[in-house]
Amino acid sequence: xxxxxxxxxxxxxxxxxxxxxxxxxxxxxxxxxxxxxxxxxxxxxxxxxxxxxxxxxxxxxxxxxxxxxxxxxxxxxxxxxxxxxxxxxxxxxxxxxxxxxxxxxxxxxxxxxxxxxxxxxxxxxxxxxxxxxxxxxxxxxxxxxxxxxxxxxxxxxxxxxxxxxxxxxxxxxxxxxxxxxxxxxxxxxxxxxxxxxxxxxxxxxxxxxxxxxxxxxxxxxxxxxxxxxxxxxxxx
Length: 236
What we know:
By secondary structure, the protein is mainly β. It is 14% helix and 40% strand.
């Protein structure tokens, strides 16, 4: 499906920089939040080849930004989670699809290596106590409510455009609320491996989450979160 041509090689040279270099927040228009009434998922070809996601090689990276008049007293955070699921590869993007799950218990807050990869904006060290406190708040009932919603789910509705750079419409279920998002992705194929890289932005309030805040809102988490997915899947 995803033939490695000159355009894919060009993307291959660009996208690793997006994962490791100092990042500014993504433009809002890179992700479209679609109408709440879901559309039917496009059919996946019966003969589509199944690729199983490798959870140890795949990750979701969430960039969390501070806001409010007292923002200088807080930290921006890098949250890393594991991804599992499958990708079905048909003869074209339109006949392919995927299902992904992210166990929220897998989230790690501010691993030093991840902060270093994000550059100067995340250069300040975060203590182990602060990391654990942030993770506790994130998994608590007011934010992700991990006790009742242990999984984040992302499932394709449709893939359109070129096979190496499809526009993805996906159904995202977070904390019991489902929204459809549209965003671009880049796909690279090895002999028995697929690597998919995507970036998107979502607002917590779209999923019924009130961003965490303290001191009467003087220090709070910005509503918009920047997400990066790096999925490595192997032929099943």
